[in-house]
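JOB MANIFEST
job_type = single_chain_structure
chain_count = 1
residues = 194
[input]
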Amino acid sequence: MSIFASSLTSLTDAELVERAAAGGEESFEELVRRYQRPIIAYVYRIIGDYDAALDLTQEVFIKVYGSLRRYRAEYKFSTWIYRIAHNAAIDHLRRVAARDVREEVERRERHLSSRALNPEQERERNERRAEIESVVEQLPPAYRELIILRHAHDLSYEEIAEVTGLPLGTVKNRIFRARELMRRMFIERGITEA
């Protein structure tokens, strides 16, 4: 390690950010050295896929690098970078959830079609699926995210609290409210079973 590199290790995160924002590549590299492993571990714990966690961590550092000039020193850098990592992980989970839902729908369609549904049953099934998807899409974003994490990803309330950073009681309360809202929306649409 060079004398210059060792002097970087004594700088605070805020000092490194300031230098990196002014074009100091070595300062940004020091930030990466400090936070790469913790961010990989954090993202991995949220999404459960190590290879994807590596890719997402790379995206996080690209976003951090592009946003250095907007970083405000009154906030801890570690909190700021973990928030960026959290958002990247949540976005990833949403993409995966949407893909998983599509794959599950396709799997069920294949299974059901193998049982030779008549056209009327097929139409009813498609209508029901469309109604459910429509209701979930109409939920407020804070509720929709929790419903997706709970039902599309089968995360526990505790895991959802960890992913979102919300208190456990808030998670339980919002999921309860989201289900009640969905129930009312289904009743308004004349659907009593979903």
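[summary]
The longest helix spans residues 77-114.
The chain has nine helices and no strands.
exit_status = 0
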